[in-house]
Design a protein that fits this description.
The strands form two sheets. The protein has an eight-stranded mixed beta sheet, sandwiched between helices. Strand 9 and strand 10 form a beta hairpin. It has a single domain, classed as LigB-like (Protocatechuate 4,5-dioxygenase, Chain B, 3-Layer(aba) Sandwich). It starts with a strand and ends with a helix. The model has no long low-confidence stretch (mean pLDDT 93). The protein has ten helices and ten strands. Helix content is 34%, strand content 21%. Helix 4 packs across helix 6 and helix 6 packs parallel to helix 9. It is globular, with a radius of gyration of 17 Å. With 286 residues, the chain is α/β, with parallel strands linked by helices.
Length: 286
C-alpha cells in the first residue's frame, strides 16, 4: 500500500507568489511567513514524497460560477498553469499521478461521493504557490500530483463535516493503493480573511487559533460550524479552511505536529503554515 507520510497546510495568497518571483523572502514584511517553511523544507528532504495530493479551491482559472462542481478530482497526465491576472509567472506544467487519480475517483464514487472527473484541468495559484513554497527553486518537479478542488465560492457550499468525510474517503483510497509510493497531502488557503465588502480586511485570530489547535488532535471540532457560520467567523474567503479540513481527513487518525507558523497580515490575510506527520502503529508503541 502507499505510505502517507504527512500533511502540509498553508496559505496560498497570490501575493506570496509575487514575493517569490521578486526574491522578497528576507524582506521584513515577508520574512516571518517564509521562515515558517524552513522546518517544512527539512522535513520534505527527509520524507522524500513521490506524490502530492492537494486539496485546494479554484479561483476561476478552471471553473467559474456558471459551472462550479462541489468536488472535482483531476485525472490528467499533466496540469497546465495559466495567467490569472495577478502578475504571477506562468509555471511549467505539473505531472499528474494519473493511475492514482483514477483509483481515488473510483473509491470516492463507490463511497457515494458525487464528484466531477477532470481529464483536463488547469491549476491556479491555490496549488502552484504551496508547491513553490515547499520546493523553492526546484528546476524539476519533485512529485507527481493529484489535485482535488473544493467549491468555496458558489453557494450552496459543502459542509465542514462533508469535507472531512471526503478526506477520510481519500485516506481509505490511499491506504488501498497497491504501490510503495510515499504520499504527502496538502491543504491550502486561508486562514481568516475577507477581501471585499463591508468587512474587507476582517481577520479573526481567535478562530484561526481554534483551527490550529484542533486540526491535528481533534479535527471533528472544526465541523461544529456550518459553512455560513465559518464565513461569519473567518470572512468570506476564510471558508477555505474547508480545504484544510479535507486534507486533515486524508491523513488518518494518528498525527503529530512538527511545526506551526502564524503571521498577520499578508495581503489582508491571516497566513499560516502547519506541518503534521503521520504516526504509524510502530511509532505509537515506541
Amino acid at each position: 500500500m502507499a505510505q502517507i507520510v504527512g500533511g502540509i497546510f498553508t496559505s496560498h495568497v497570490p501575493a506570496i507568489g509575487n514575493a517569490i518571483a521578486k526574491g522578497l523572502q528576507d524582506d521584513p514584511y515577508w520574512k516571518p511567513f517564509f521562515d515558517g517553511f524552513h522546518p517544512v523544507h527539512r522535513w520534505l528532504a527527509a520524507a522524500k514524497p513521490d506524490v502530492a495530493v492537494l486539496f485546494y479551491n479554484d479561483h476561476g482559472l478552471n471553473f467559474f460560477l456558471d459551472k462550479m462542481p462541489t468536488f472535482a478530482v483531476g485525472a490528467a497526465a499533466r496540469y497546465e498553469n495559466a495567467d490569472e491576472g495577478w502578475g504571477l509567472p506562468v509555471m511549467a506544467p505539473f505531472p499528474g499521478a494519473q493511475a492514482l487519480s483514477w483509483h481515488i475517483i473510483e473509491h470516492l464514487v463507490a463511497s457515494e461521493f458525487d464528484i466531477t472527473m477532470c481529464q483536463e484541468m488547469k491549476v491556479d495559484h491555490a496549488l502552484t504557490v504551496p508547491l513553490a513554497l515547499s520546493w523553492p527553486g526546484a528546476d524539476t518537479r519533485p512529485v507527481t500530483i493529484v489535485p482535488i478542488a473544493i467549491n468555496t465560492v458558489q453557494h450552496p457550499l459543502p459542509s465542514a463535516k462533508r469535507c472531512l468525510a471526503l478526506g477520510r474517503a481519500v485516506h481509505e483510497a490511499l491506504r488501498s493503493w497497491k504501490s510503495d509510493e510515499r504520499v504527502v497531502v496538502f491543504g491550502t488557503g486561508g486562514l481568516s480573511h475577507q477581501l471585499d465588502g463591508q468587512r474587507a480586511g476582517f481577520i479573526n485570530k481567535d478562530y484561526d487559533h481554534f483551527c490550529l489547535e484542533n486540526l491535528g488532535p481533534a479535527p471533528d471540532a472544526l465541523t461544529r460550524h456550518s459553512a455560513v457560520d465559518i464565513i461569519e467567523l473567518a470572512g468570506s474567503q476564510g471558508i477555505e479552511i474547508l480545504n484544510w479540513i479535507a486534507a486533515r481527513g486524508a491523513l488518518g487518525e494518528s498525527v503529530r505536529e512538527v511545526s506551526r507558523n502564524y503571521h498577520i497580515p499578508i495581503s489582508n490575510t491571516a497566513a499560516a503554515t502547519m506541518l503534521l506527520e503521520t504516526v504509524t502503529a510502530l511509532q505509537k508503541v515506541a
